[in-house]
Write a structure and sequence with these properties.
198 residues, alpha/beta, Maf protein, seven-stranded mixed beta sheet, binds inosine 5'-triphosphate, XTP diphosphatase activity, EC 3.6.1.66, dITP/XTP pyrophosphatase
Length: 198
């Protein structure tokens, strides 16, 4: 059974391919399918935006479609950048710059007030049009410096609770085990398994 993962983010594709490993599915990104459509993320929640992205692609195919909308909520910054995570300081601004800016805005703030979380909403559209979602978080805090070369985006400044390292210092397997994306996608995987009857 073919699954289409509707995203333009190759880091998400890597993580999702790994998380769905072992299930008899093929993951295709939009790029691999030559779908050029750029979806406007006009929703006001991660969940709404995930559904928008999945629906935009579902009209091109009879396969199962999944989409991920995710981001970082920093409590001290009133949950910024939130659903605007990829657009924060401009879509093309390097993450080094975005991460530095968040660290700067938290300068002098003690650890107990540096709490943050990654949120992931996964939407799945079945061939019969049924739409389901799973929303999960990874709780942690913003460190005082960026660290790590793995992962992507805000990973170098995010330190998951219970670990002394950033999520960019984790292997992809370690991160997937505890991450917002890992947790949401494993729920979706169980739904797929049920539907496919295996
Ligand atoms: P698609 O919409 O095409 O899937 P995108 O990168 O634009 O790709 P989002 O709109 O969902 O995706 O933006 C999510 C942003 O939140 C992403 O670009 C990262 O900056 C950040 N983010 C989400 N999950 C993350 C993770 O696991 N680690 C680090 N940053 C993450």
């Amino acid at each position: 059974e073919k699954i289409i993962f509707a995203t333009g983010n190759k880091n998400k594709v890597k993580e999702v391919k790994k998380i769905l490993e072992g299930l008899d599915v093929e993951v295709y990104s939009k790029k691999e399918l030559n779908i050029k459509e750029d979806v406007e993320e006009t929703g006001s929640t991660f969940e709404e935006n995930a559904i928008l992205k999945a629906k935009a692609i579902a009209k091109y195919t009879d396969s199962i479609v999944i989409a991920d909308d995710s981001g970082l909520e920093v409590d001290y910054l009133n949950k910024e950048p939130g659903i605007y995570s990829s657009r924060y300081l401009g879509e093309d601004t390097p993450y080094e710059v975005k991460n530095k800016e968040i660290l700067r805005r938290l300068e002098g703030v003690s650890k107990e007030y540096r709490t943050a979380r990654f949120v992931c909403a996964m939407a799945i559209i079945m061939p019969d049009g049924e739409c389901l979602t799973a929303v999960e978080t990874m709780e942690g805090y913003i460190g005082t410096e960026a660290s790590g070369k793995n992962g992507f985006g805000y990973d170098p400044i995010f330190y998951p609770n219970g670990y002394e390292i950033s999520s960019a210092d984790m292997t992809m397997e370690e991160k997937n085990d505890i991450s917002h994306r890992g947790k949401a996608l494993r729920k979706i995987r169980d739904i797929i398994k049920e539907k496919l009857g295996d």
